Amino acid sequence: MLRKLLTAAAIVAIAAFSAGGAFAEGMTIRIATEGAYPPFNGKDAAGNLVGFDVDIANALCAEMKDQCTIVAQDWDGIIPGLVANKYDAIIASMSITDERKQSVDFTDPYYSNYLRVMAKTGSGITSIDDLAGKSVGAERSTVASQWAEDNLGRSSDVKLYDTQTAAYSDLTSGRLDAMISDIYPAYDWLQSNPGYEFVADKIDINDKIAIAVRKGDDKLREAFNAAIKAIRDDGTYAKINAKYFPFDIF
Amino acid sequence: MPQNVWSLLAFGDTGWGDELLAGASITVQLAIVSLACGLILGLILAFGRLSHWRALRWLTDVYIIFIRGTPEFLVLLLVFFGLDQVVHMAATGLGFQSGFEIPKFAAAVAGLSLIFGAYASEVFRGAYLAVPPGQIEAAMACGMSSSQVFRRIRLPQMWRFAIPGLTNLWMVLLKDTSLAAVIALDELLRQAKVASEATREPLLFYVSAGVLYLVLTGISDIVRHRLERSAQRGFAR
Questions:
Q1: In sequence order, which residues have a C-beta less than 8 Å from that of residue A216 and are 6 or more positions away?
Q2: Any bridge partners for residue A231, and if so which?
Q3: Distance (Å) from the C-alpha of residue B195 to the closest C-alpha of chain A?
Q4: A106, A6, A73, A83: which is closest to B194 by C-alpha?
Q5: Of the candidates B85, B101, B182, which has its C-beta nearest A14's C-beta?
Q6: Using a CB-CB distance cutoff of 8 angstroms, which residues of chain B are in contact with residue A32?
Q7: Mind listing the pLDDT tens digit for each residue in A206-232?
Q8: Is residue A226 within 8 Å of A239, Cβ to Cβ?
Q9: A5–chain B Cβ distance below 8 A for any pair
Q10: Cα(B61)–Cα(B64) distance, rounded to whole angstroms?
Q11: How many helices (H) does chain B have, and how many strands (E)?
Q12: Mind listing the pLDDT tens digit for each residue in B151-200?
């Protein structure tokens, strides 16, 4: 928390000084990603950046016919670095939030986060309504736990856990009938836990993930928007999507 | 452990051993260069505080209060991201085309030595004052000039008094290098984090990083012991 506050303070201080370089055509676009959030952006053992964000970044650059460099940058310094002109864009699975909008501008989303319900295969749960009277777990202080308490608090027995791992172990031991979580870590868990599956429809929580650019860098933002639309239309996006997930994540 | 520990820690393109060692090497380089710059800064600041000029004393006081009173992380953020902007503004103000960017390593060294210098100055000041006044008086009585007193009596003994405090600060510096991850320097802790996320074996990689830090501090302790012994020669216990 202290780090977060300090980072925010530094952003304000830097923005006050900032020369605010804007993107011009023919320039190399410098893109930052975190490199520690697989499968979206990570490093392989040879030290290369890999993942969905990296593939999308490369596809967008190819579409825009621009030279791009992608660098790894720790999460704590990722927005200050953008503001201080160390790079021009952040493609690092960053959710659009009002707080972040005060220091950076966002492009159109390039994927979305949803909540999903997981249960034992053949549990008979097929919709959110079927959760009535069942015990449903979620990690405390997350979007998932918030949603569960707001929407299932009356009808189901909602149990909150300090960690996602603790909730998983109660699901496998049978103390939980179902569990609610962000879709991507849940999908990841299902890969190594056969016998469990997604049930009911995905729950839209309006969590959109987009590219961050410096405030006022409209030219680059527009260029990214056009490129996102283009790779959606020509199938490039679907190909990259299919490499990581068997469902559309847009 | 689902996967073989040794294959995860292997060298080359399949394991993370070489990445961890490369991280440790950056950590050591950062710490040593920052130590050298910080020691010089610390000496200058110490003499600033001991100076006869009030303005100089006041200036160094303000600096030391600022650095010691703010978290290291904030100082580093300001240096890492602010210094560039200042240089950029100065350059464009003077009419230069500014494509200048401070190299990451230099920015990290600047930040870490600014912090180290502030703390070291207090150790040096304490060491300066720890030399018994009787010895200074005796030297003056022998007819030495004040610069001779400094060179022959104060400096050699200051070193002896300063070693314990400085080695302490060195240990802190060695671990503070992990803060340089915010400017994308791939030091030891950052490499451990990347590896643990990629392999989903956080315990293995954080423990490995911990062991490497312990090796580094262990070596430092041996060096400290030798330095202390050589500084103590001539002093019977």
A1: A20, A22, A105
A2: none
A3: 8
A4: A73
A5: B85
A6: 184
A7: 999 999 999 999 999 999 999 999 999
A8: no
A9: no
A10: 5
A11: 11, 0
A12: 999 988 888 899 999 999 999 999 999 998 888 788 999 999 889 888 87
